[in-house]
Amino acid sequence: MTCARDSILEAVRRNRPRGEYPPISPPRFSLPEPQGRQAKFIGSLKLMGGTVLEASTEQTLLETLEERLKQAGHVCSAVPEIVGDRNLAAVKSPAELADVDVAVVRAILGVAETGSVLFTERELRINTVAYLAQHLVVLLDPTEIVDGLQAAYDHPVFKTAAYAVFHTGPSATGDIEGVLIHGAQGVRSLTVVFQPRPAVG
Amino acid sequence: MTELPIGRGGRQLLHPEVAGRYEGDLSQDGAPLSHAEGLSQPLRAKIREPQPRGARQRGRRRVDHAEAAKRFIAATEHEKFHDERLWDMRQKRDQQRDTIPEWEVLRDLASQIKEHTLAHLDTYLEQFEAAALANGAHVHWARDAAEHNCIVHGILADNGAKTLIKSKSMLTDECGFREYMAAVGVEVIETDLGERIQQLDDEGPSNIVAPAIHKTRDDVAEVFARVYGSDPDNDDPHYLAHEQRVATRPLILAADAGMTGCNFAVAETGGITVCTNEGNADLSANTPKLHIASVGIEKLIPKVQHLGVFIRLLSRSALGSPITQYTSHFRKPRDGAEMHIVLVDNGRSARLGMEEFWTSLKCIRCGACMATCPVYRRSGGLSYGATYPGPIGAIIDPTFDRHKYSSLPFASTLNGSCTNVCPVKINIHEQIFAWRKVMAETHELPMVKSGLMKAAGMLLSSPAAYRAAISASDVALRTLPHFVIYNPLNTWAEGRAMPPAPARTFHSWWAANRGKGEKT
């Protein structure tokens, strides 16, 4: 008996469609951003159900965030800017994070076209933190927003990371009569906080 | 809850009776939202009626699409809501298209990338396998559904896994995976809300992106009351979605293994890309120690840069949402975890050799052809009695079983709308027509159709007989009583009004006015 691999490959070769089908290198399409990249990102994110933490005159964004987090239950932070009460380094099993109320993580980049943010296992530390938490807070450096998905896919993590994921707003479903509900299985909200990336030192 | 005026979406409804008020979650600025599967126009099924069930399955006997469609249409509230909701998806898709000047170029590129990959599929499969193995993933090959199920069962058994959480995958539906696993004592838990509803109601998905789209909220409340013991009279979708979240989460946390499908497999990286709105694929793959991905061999694309084309098209075509909430790329197993990729043929390599039909393998499973199809919208996905409903199903299903699915290419008006919205430019309506020819040539025509076709064949092969018959039938349409025209043999007139007959035929007009002295 030939093995399945060889017989599938043999059948694929035998049945190869006739004709020339040259390889395709897609051109890069430019995306107009009349109000600027950050404004476009905010608009796109809000249409996808995401929220943006807004600045007040008295406090910095980080102070506003810290104050909000005081009202939350368990906070799990994967960023140096925020101290939580759950230590990701001590987590033995990904399911342990089920009681987390708010997770705070930093995005590699943002995508203006769609309002997406990008993470890998390096940013999340334990991947499930971004899904099992009730709410997700994302720190994003506004200078790290790219114009579109094509530009985002140029990032090297897609060839190096074990896991890379775009989040665009929170978990959502419309599976019952098209009524839009946030928090289907994953996070109920996703909030972006614009915060420059700290200098590596 | 915000009261919004009817007609917010700014379009004329096909069925104004199902207009509703906005019930979904709001944006940060308090505006209604229509991302993911959300409606752009508030709709609601108002009259409670039993859910019409799908086509009757009788082994390998021919699926009677028309019979099941008739029952769906008879459930008028379901039919109207379904029609309107799918049409809303099509409208959302058009709105997204209109925001992207290069939309048609993207469709061309997507089509060309897929054609190139399929024409060099052996090379790309080998490249993908080598990269995946180098990443530390396990790669398995399955010739058919039985091999797929057996391989997955083996992986689960090796790991002592008795419970499996999974995200939606049309391929596993195609393989009869849940049924197989039930028989060998592995508990499978679907984690997508729509797919879970269908699993609990012992039905297949009726749509490839919104599995329970044929169900009203009452139908869902009935299923959840039966299975979860929730309040049968509370049909608020927020309540129902919460019930499922609460019931499913402990199962996710305790599961031994996780499974996902695959939207795109990238040969260059050996990784797979999965698109969901709920984040349930990420939970399924990241929570247990074992991730199994079932991948149809046609899912290959050469490079990461090609994702930039397909991800821009997929959710916009599928739901009219700019992107799915989650676009997830799995390339390597997590530390201490295992990742298995099962590459499945199940008829795909044979389809590659079908000159008229191989381009159906370009399909990226967006469902745009279903949202736009008048037959699908009015008959419901389950009336096709097959894993893949709608226009794409009509050209794929017969490759699995030509006899069983021989009626499906006839469930079409051939209006070509499916072809016009397809993001990878499959000539769907032409393939539907080509399948009709195959069915005629292989004597798979439904009986009434074959009798009529024989008569039509005799007429059409003789111009003189054809012209005489046209004159006679126009006279007949004008003069015959209703019950003769709308008789059970004339299936075309079922559910349709026959056009008024012209006062005279074109040929007799030509002969009288222009054709003087010419032979007619």
Number of helices of chain A: 7
The proportion of strand residues of chain A reads 15-25%
Q: Give a count of the beta strands of chain B, DSSP E runs of length 2 or more.
A: 10
Strand order of the largest sheet of chain A: 1-11-6-3-2
Low-confidence stretches of chain B: 1-7
Order of helices and strands of chain A: HHEHEEEEHHEEHHEEEE
Q: Please bin the fraction of helical residues of chain A.
A: 10-25%
Radius of gyration of chain A, in angstroms, nearest whole number: 21 Å
General shape of chain A = globular
**Could you report the average pLDDT of chain B, rounded to the nearest whole number?**
92
Summary?
With 201 residues, chain A is an alpha/beta fold.
Q: How does this structure look, described?
A:
The complex is a heterodimer of chains A (201) and B (520). By secondary structure, chain A is of the alpha/beta class. Chain A has helices spanning 4-14, 37-47, 61-70, 121-124, 129-132, 149-152, 157-160, and strands spanning 51-52, 75-77, 102-106, 110-111, 116-120, 135-140, 145-146, 163-167, 172-173, 181-182, 189-194. In chain A, strands 1-11-6-3-2 form a 5-stranded parallel beta sheet, sandwiched between helices. In chain A, a hairpin with a 4-residue loop joins strand 4 and strand 5 (116-120). The longest helix of chain A has 11 residues, at 4-14. The mean pLDDT of chain A is 96. Chain B is of the alpha/beta class and 520 residues long. Helices cover 46% and strands 9% of the residues of chain B. Chain B contains 22 helices and 10 strands. Chain B has a 6-stranded parallel beta sheet, sandwiched between helices. In chain B, strands 8-5-6-9 form a 4-stranded mixed beta sheet. In chain B, a hairpin with a 4-residue loop joins strand 5 and strand 6. In chain B, helix 9 packs across helix 10 (237-254). The model of chain B is unreliable at 1-7 (pLDDT under 50). Chains A and B meet through helix 1, helix 2, strand 1, helix 5 and helix 6 of A and helix 2, helix 3, helix 4, helix 8 and helix 10 of B. Strand 8 of chain A pairs antiparallel with strand 9 of chain B, so a sheet runs across the interface.
